Amino acid sequence: MLQSKANWNYKKSELSSQLFSELGLPPLVEQLLIKRGIETTEDALAFLQPKLDDLHAPSLLNDIEKAKQRIDQAIDNGESVLVFGDYDADGVSSTAVLVEALRERGAMCDFYIPNRFTEGYGPNEVAFREAYEQGFQLIITVDTGIAGFAPAKLAKELGIDLIITDHHEVQEQLPDAYAIVHPKCSPNYPFKELAGVGVAFKLAHYLLGYFPKQLLDLVVIGTIADLVPLTSENRILAYHGLQAISNSKRPGIVALKKIAGIQDTVSEEDIGFLIGPRLNAVGRLQSAYPAIELLLTEDPEEAAYIANEINEINQERQKIVAKITEEAIKQVESNPLQQQHFIVVAQEGWNEGVLGIVASKLVRTYQRPAIVLTLQPEKQRAKGSARSIPAFDMFENGMEIQDLFQQFGGHAQAAGMTLPIENVDKIRERFNQLAQQKLTPEDYQEQLEIEAIISSDDIDMKLINTLTQLAPFGMANPKPLFQIKGKPAEVRQIGSKQNHLKLALQGERQVVQAIGFGIGELFHYITPQATIDLVGYLQINEWNGKKNPQIMLQDLAIKEWQLFDYRGSKFWKKQVASLEQDRTMIITADQKKADPSLPFVQYSYQQLNELDQTTQLDQFHSLILADLPKSREELQLLLKRWSPKRIIVSYHIQDDHFSQVFPKREEFKWFYGMLLKREQFVLAQDTELLAKHKGWKQGKIEFIIRVFSELEFVKIDDGIIRPMKHPQKRDLTESTVYQEMLEQAETEKLLYYSTHQELKEWMTSQMDEHGSMKEELIYGL
Q: What are its GO biological-process terms (predicted)?
């Protein structure tokens, strides 16, 4: 038995899978569409074949006409226009989109990205004063500004017109700006979940008067990297944007793809894991200007230079993240009760640019919401980022204690904040209280949404290619997760640190490869005979020009108890070294045989059977049988009382009682007939001769004599055995010595010489009795 790490949730739908029968779709694709809330043929076609014509008109956005008129005025009058962006991938791509559109219209424009370390997030008064002194008369924000109340007020005082384009959560009040272009501030706009770059693109579209396809390779970056729901307009923009970026001739995109090792078609995963992180890395460690310059440059040589520089910054970012994550984990582990429901860690010197990444790693590690802060004693403040689990809305809960922050903003799953240093302990206490009140134990487990249960024999290239019709995958349209059952044809650890798991899953007709990154430790908990339930994504693995289907493991479970068979092995201690110390028990035949080199609780059979029957053994998940019991009954008593998740048999025998020592009845008969003929048997000289003559072990001869002596068939006098003249007729089974040896031989036959399957079936039968007794106690109360 192996418990899954996550909660497995199964998506259900009451609708018929024949809903789109006229489209001729495979049943599995129909099922997946229905589970995505698609109920009509028209909606299914719109999802599977996203059309640019289905995008909503930009004119539906509030204030967009007002914004256009003011921009037109600035262009006509030769005013200086400043595009004020953000330092993440969405902000960078938003800035590039609007700058290109303004330049195409002939505007005198420049861009400004605040420095994360000296200015923080969003518009700020110092930057606006600088813009005023440089003669800018119009500022347009992209991907930021909806919470910039003080800067908006200052702009008005300075006579600068401020147009805000943003997509972040709207607070109770709105900034006093000339115009606000924001889907959530536009009652007539049907789709509220555009990324910052999507809003900037809408404004660019409206300004240019035509649909600017040439900007789609930029739009797709922010749309996917910012993790907005890939439904409706976002799906259309991402779908066509991936085609655009795959074929883009933009020097910055070409250089970025090359440095990231992306060839030909760009996928959503390429943006999420290769392009987005590189663009983000610049703003995390320094000024984000190189990222925008890369996207806007028309010089291939300059693009290659900047792309290489950005790649080096990204590598440095990875090292910094690893170091801070290690230090953050130490803080959590050193005081787990303080972080029981919600993690808040803080330390001076942590780079604030990467704290969101560190928070995400803590959430994945502990399945709890997390805030990571850098302390700035010289300013008496703490700054940082939060990431959350699905069941805990970070923005909503943060607003409940907003009085503890100097600045706070973000989304349900992510937020940024600044607060006085003295409030760090207070927010830790308050967030832990909120999480304790609102979350259940199940909420702290990762939630895996399983789309369907399929057979490993169903997995082939055709199926995987069919599933790509649902791409691009992302928020609100996750890559389909499947549950697959099978037996492992192969299980092994891979990677330089042996921290990855490689499985070959045996179906009735084929073997499918599966790989799980970061779960290599599960290797020690899987037997080749186990039936495994896997949860994973399907993908194509290409190696040496060959393409094969592969399962990307996310979790696995084994629902039956497992028997690990190391009988007779000299290396069994190495095999059990990775088992949990406080969850493992060793059973020995004799208390004196306890092995101090093993860090587990150790009992002899006798000690264990003498324990109070109320003693809880279920806390131990693994049982190691280091020695054969003296009788099957000893083990039967144990298994009737306890059903462990796994049993490890590691015993061996020195004297082979079953096949070499224990005599057959014919051998008893032959020996007695020989003794009657000879009338005596001299132990000292005849034992060795008889052993050679019959090919018997000397122990067998000695055992026959002991049984005959107990049954009074022979008399032993001074080492000479003679037959009794008139012995009483008795059966061999009446001998205690014979019975003990018979029991030992039967025990060895069952527990040592049996096959893996035979031994497991016998143990299961004993534990089934325990299970039925336990059920009777529970339900028959």
A: DNA recombination; DNA repair
Contact predicate 283/117, CB 8 Å = no
- Mean pLDDT of all residues in the chain? 91
pLDDT score recorded for residue 748? 86
Share of the chain above pLDDT 70, in %: 96
| Overall average pLDDT of the 423-450 stretch | 94
Region label for 668, one of left (φ > 0), alpha (ψ between -120 and 50) or beta (otherwise)? alpha
Check pLDDT > 70 for residue 402: yes
Task: Say how many residues make up the chain.
Answer: 781
Buried b (16+ CB within 10 A) or exposed e, 758-780: ebbebbbebbeeeeeeeeeeeee
Closest CA to 109 of 292, 250, 310: 292
Indicate the CATH number of 335-434 among 3.40.50.11030, 3.10.310.30, 3.40.50.2300, 1.10.3720.10: 3.10.310.30
pLDDT, residue 777, reads: 34
The residue among 222, 235, 231 whose CA lies nearest residue 275 is 222
Give the model's pLDDT for residue 358: 97
Is pLDDT at 778 greater than 50 in this prediction? no
Q: What SS3 state is found at 480?
A: coil
Cis-peptide into 27, omega within 30 deg: no
Residues 155 and 166: their CA atoms lie apart, in Å, by: 17
What are the b/e assignments for 215-241, b being 16+ CB within 10 Å? bbbbbbbbbbbbbbbbbbbbbbbbbbb
Instruction: Give the ranges where 36-124 is alpha helix by DSSP (H).
Output: 41-48, 64-77, 89-105
For residue 726, is pLDDT > 90? no
The pLDDT tens digits of the residues spanning 576-631 come to 988 999 999 999 887 777 788 889 999 988 888 777 766 778 889 999 999 888 88
What is the Cα gyration radius of the chain? Answer: 37
Three-class DSSP category at 15: coil
pTM attached to this predicted model: 0.81
- % helix, strand, coil for the chain, step of 5: 50, 20, 30
Beta strands in 508-593 (DSSP E): 511-516, 532-543, 546-557, 562-565, 584-588
pLDDT band at 772 (very low <50, low <70, confident <90, very high): very low
Q: For 54-313, which CATH class?
A: alpha beta
- Could you please state the CATH topology (level 3) that the domain comprising 657-748 is classified under: Arc Repressor Mutant, subunit A (1.10.10)
- pLDDT of res. 775: 36
Give burial (CB, 10 Å; 0-12/13-18/19+) of 312. exposed
